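The records we work with from here on pair a chain with its fold. Taken together, the tokens spell out the fold as the letters spell out the chain. To see the layout at work, look at the sequence and tokens printed below.
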Amino acid sequence: MAEPKKPESRPPSNPYVTGPTKKLESAHSTAPVRRAVPETTRPVARPDLVTEGMKAHRREIERRKRQAAIEKLHNQQESEDALRVFWKGAAWVAVVAGLGLGYWGLQQKYGNKWPMWDVWIFLAVALFGVFGGLLWYINKKDL
């Protein structure tokens, strides 16, 4: 038996080509071959391939997805409400601490002998603060 003749090994024309080089035939197409199927003028009525059980299963999956989305939104809303309550409480603590430190600073500076102008400012701020708080509380939406 004669051994088949191997093609000659020649260097590539491009020095950057590292793999084997093979020239493809230009007449050969790599597209899939389509069988000759006659076009029908009227489509064939196919039976419904989706059964009632498959439809029920899909409905159950969609229901579970909706429930998970609703639960996620509920949890997100609860966490936002908790953060809002926390920051509101922190703001109140900061306001009360600021007022207390201001009062303490004046007491340390003047003792029980405040200047009259400081007394009037303190009383005006307290009065407007109380009336502002009352108006705010009366106009709250959740009453």
